[in-house]
Each structure stands twice: as structure tokens, then as C-alpha cells.
Amino acid sequence: MPNFIDQARMVPRVALLSTRAPRDPTKAWEGYWSRVRQTGAGGEVLWDSASDAEWNQYEGLIQKWMDLTLPVVDVGCGNGTFTRRLARVFPLALGVDVARSAVDRAELESADLSRTDYRAADFTTAGTGAAIRAEYGLVNVFVRGVLHVLRKDQQRALARNLADLVVGNPGKVLLTETNFRGNPLAYLQSLGATPGDIPEQLERAISSIPVPGRFGAGERAATFPAEDWHVDSEGPVTIEAVTMTAGGPTAIPGYYAMLSRP
What we know:
Blueprint: H1 4-18, H2 25-34, H3 52-65, E1 72-75, H4 81-86, E2 93-97, H5 100-109, E3 116-120, H6 128-136, E4 140-144, H7 152-166, E5 173-178, H8 184-190, H9 200-206, H10 217-223, E6 230-245, E7 248-260
Parallel strand pairs: 1-2, 1-4, 2-3, 4-5
Antiparallel strand pairs: 5-7, 6-7
Helix pairs in contact: 2-5, 6-7
């Protein structure tokens, strides 16, 4: 049962932290990644659990639905954790992130791999998808945990860029997003926040980056309309955040959709 008293007691601290986040999303993400010193399961990045269990959900979908002879574009790649996993399956994995600092870290962490490439680009800016399509040709696309931190207009802009990537293309788009259906304070509680303590990774996110929402079937239908996209498969998944409590990695309800252009 939700503890509404505890939620109310969390409000002042959460409000104070959130006022520190830059209003410009690009500056926010650059500032966030420029201060990261450790990634992975024991690191500072909330969503970088490096979980085999989470990846296994996606790999099964990838093997079933995607053309494995095509490259894949990892949109919002961060430090490249999933880009590197994708490179085990596809001939090339291109990681793209809006933050140059994220791309620099991804390149460093992928230095010994030959099937990864990275670049800084904004997938909410018109023309980004078309430019990558012109360079790389036919591709698949992987998007994890990006849409739920975008405004509605940014979500639609990203969808248009994804359409440019896979139009006239056998490639697929796999979306996977957090889909917690409670209020934002309940979400923070589910990640281990209490009135007296907010885990360091969570506090860092609240004070640095855009406020997350949720992205499920309803949000997908509004962002990727049926006249432009075909849903090959969709359903629940579990997103795993880094360990912030004694119970191990933090499981977050999620949603996936495998999409293609009709």
C-alpha cells in the first residue's frame, strides 16, 4: 500500500533537488555525464545495472524479430552498456547520445571492441535520423529508457527520426521504457527513497536531469500512430536499476514494443 504520509514528507527534499536540474535538456545530460566517475552495477548511474536478466529479455525479442545481418543504432546509448551487448549480435552497433561526455565514456569503455561506433547527436532534432540512414544504410534501432524522460513534442520528434531510419527498410525498432503507473513520489519510494534518505544514485538523477514520466502502450500509440507504424509485438518487461537497497538490483515495471514501418 502507498504510504502517503511518507510521500508528503519527501516533497520538500525532492522539490529542492529538482530545482537544481538545468532546464535545457542537452545541458542537463551533458552536466550529468560529465560528473560520472564510475559506471556499472556498483556505479553512480541509476539505470546502468549491467543486468544479464534484463538483457536476456531483449535478446530473445531481437533474435525473433530483427534482421541480424543489419547494423543496429542504439539511441540514447549513455556509456554504451547496451551498445556493447548489441555488438555481440549485430555486425555493427552505433551508439548515439545527446551528451558528448556520455559518448566519450562509451568510447573509452568500448576501446577493445571492433564492432562498436559512437557519436554525439540529438534524436529530437530534425534530420538526425536521415543523416544516419544516409551514412549507414539499412539498420535496426534499439531505444532503452529515452522516451519516458522526453516531453510529448520531443517524443514525436524522436519518432519522426526513427521513421526516417527505417522507412522502406526491413529493420525494426525495439523500444523498452519504464512504465511505473503510480505517482512520481511512489516511484521514488519504489527505488528506495524515504523521508530521511534518498539513495545517492537517485539523488544525483533528481538534481541533474529531466523529471521522468512513464511510457506504456497508451503513450506508444500516441507517439507512434497506427497509420505510420506497425506493432509486431508488445508487452511488459522488467527494467533493472543499480542496487540501492539491501535487496539487490532494483526492478522497475517496464514496457516494450517491437515496431516496423508498414
